[in-house]
Amino acid sequence: MPATSDADVFASPWSHLPDVLRTHGYAALQPGPRVMVLGGVHGNETCGSRAIERVVAQLDAGELTLLRGQLTLVPVANPLARRRMAREGERNLNRLFVPTPQGKEPADYEARLTDLLCPLLDRHEVLLDLHSFQSVGEAFAMIGPRDNTGTLEPFARAGEEGLLALHLRTPRVVEGWLDVYAAGLAQRQRAGVAVDESAVDFGRGTNEYMRSRGGYGVTLECGQHEDPAAPEVGYRAILSTLRLLRMIAPDPNEAPLPQPQLLRLVSVADRLHADDQFVRDWATFDAVAQGEPIGQRADGTLVRAEADGFIVFPNDEALPGTEWFYFARESERRLA
């Protein structure tokens, strides 16, 4: 995002947000699922915070009633990043999301937040993490791996996770995050970039942590950062999650579930030089044909689509050595 001026920061309703992790907890008398909803993991993504605050207000006013289970809502997971209205405080909170090893001091601000958030997640079994993205594009959900017993991300609740994603009613659902992140690290190694063996852990975020604890989670990308409709997307998603799990009353007027397009991330291209440029303004999920130019390197080399597919998360402000864009293809997976 463009640099934020001091005037912009102090005009923000979050400019005086203290370094306190504010949570809202609700527990029904009837047992049921334990659900956590996160917003503001990245400070410049405000739609989730607004959606959560709306649900909190309705629960507190009695307009919504929790029928069973437990619900924890965290409107702003990264207060420092929110004060700055920047993606990060000192680093990306949604990377290396693991507790600090016992006996060691947290390495940075986000590590201290993670040490607070991980015990909260440990007490839950379902996570909905609300985000937005920089480029223009429609809302979509991101899910984890299929059931597997592998070493990268073993998992046994793909059916429940897929059903949750389906009920978020986005036009697209995307899989393959950690696989492509690990492949991106291997790609850097082949290019001669020094990569620590534990670097793959930096690709593990909130949902990966929840899966590692026996639960499941979905990331909802509610739309572009400034899209006025994004908070409504997040709000509806929270209600849909709670209805699916029978934690609030059903909606008698609920429309039939759509059948979203399912895509799989297959590769990532890094920006190698500040003069690497896209050949045009791309939006997330723009379709490209095999061989079609996507960008041009500083030395004039064209970066072309490896197959028929889709651009995801194009970032024309990416720093050299970081992700420039992701590439996705149609997936044969079915959610339900």
Could you walk me through the main structural features you see in this protein, from its secondary elements to its overall organization?
With 336 residues, the chain is α/β, with parallel strands linked by helices. The chain has 2 domains: 6-259, 3-Layer(aba) Sandwich (Aminopeptidase), CATH 3.40.630; 266-330, RNA polymerase II/Efflux pump adaptor protein, barrel-sandwich hybrid domain (OB fold (Dihydrolipoamide Acetyltransferase, E2P), Beta Barrel), CATH 2.40.50.100. Helix content is 26%, strand content 22%. The protein contains 8 helices and 14 strands. The chain has an 11-stranded mixed β-sheet with strand order 1-3-2-4-7-5-6-8-14-13-10, with helices on both faces. It has a 3-stranded antiparallel β-sheet with strand order 9-11-12, with no helix packed on it. A hairpin with a 5-residue loop joins strand 11 (293-296) and strand 12 (302-304). It starts with 5 loop residues before the first helix and ends in a 6-residue tail after the last strand. The model is unreliable at 1-11 (pLDDT under 50).
Question: Any key phrases for this structure?
Answer:
OB fold (Dihydrolipoamide Acetyltransferase, E2P), 11-stranded mixed sheet, alpha/beta, 2 domains, single chain, 336 residues, 3-stranded antiparallel sheet, disordered N terminus, Aminopeptidase
Question: Secondary-structure map with pairings?
Answer:
Layout: H1 6-11, E1 24-27, E2 34-38, H2 47-61, E3 70-74, H3 79-84, H4 109-122, E4 126-133, E5 140-142, H5 158-167, E6 172-175, H6 177-190, H7 206-212, E7 216-224, H8 230-244, E8 261-271, E9 277-278, E10 287-288, E11 293-296, E12 302-304, E13 309-312, E14 322-330
Parallel strand pairs: 2-3, 2-4, 4-7, 5-6, 6-8
Antiparallel strand pairs: 1-3, 5-7, 8-14, 9-11, 10-13, 11-12, 13-14
Helix pairs in contact: 2-8
